[in-house]
DNA sequence: ATATTATTGCGATTATATCGCATTAATAAA
DNA sequence: TTTATTAATGCGATATAATCGCAATAATAT
């Protein structure tokens, strides 16, 4: 199964990389207009996550947000940090703080998904 | 606006209280069968959250989970703890650890929503 | 230039949750 | 207890996020 480079793919990757924030499908669609189909955007994003070049985080609004992996190289594909979602302007940012996951014995963690929602400095 | 005590309401509250875990609409519906309508379950849960007798948490699967408030009395209506969702059996538990929310200056937090997903001891 | 097939676009579909509105039933008042 | 008031419910329609099936398109190997 040879992977192919397509226009949609590069457009979406560029959008992810240009954004300092985590973006939803909606944002990407708005950015790209109707040039790329909705289903394609979702499929490309899902592939990016599988390939490990993007993160998927589920917002406390129940929507999916995506961000290009910057720090995580190769094996260490973790992002144990919190995200902040502004209730007013809707932007989702990665917060600097790492969270240490302390779990009771016997639990096997796979993913961390943390959100603080509230008001960002611009909207407060 | 006088609040009324109804059968649905007490059934749902009892379900919440009996469950040691956070439950989704689906779980509650399964528990109660068709005796209570879907919309009613959602509406009652939403009211519970407004009244401060239940917590709403959004799972990293994008679904809403609800839990009866136990510790939080009156003013201190916080639940800055993580939740664990088992990828196998689907159960959602509250973890003991409190998380301290350190935010950069200017950010005004309103809610915390944290999930670790993975495998619980029974499923690991 | 051609063949192969990964990827796309489109429409239909699933899943979660909410809404409008007529009906029901919990509570207050008579 | 009976009646009136209206909060709450049930039902069907609707909103929104995301996925799926399948024919058409286009990226790459030959």
UniProtKB/TrEMBL annotation, chains A, B:
Cofactor, how bound (note): Binds 1 zinc ion per subunit.
Binding site for Zn(2+): 86, 89
GO biological process: negative regulation of DNA-templated transcription; regulation of secondary metabolite biosynthetic process
Keywords, alphabetical: Metal-binding, Zinc
Molecular function terms, GO-annotated: DNA-binding transcription factor activity; transcription cis-regulatory region binding; zinc ion binding
Pfam families from the UniProt entry: FUR (PF01475)
Highest taxon, organism lineage: Bacteria
Cofactor(s) this protein requires: Zn(2+)
Name of the protein in question: Ferric uptake regulation protein
Gene that specifies this protein: fur
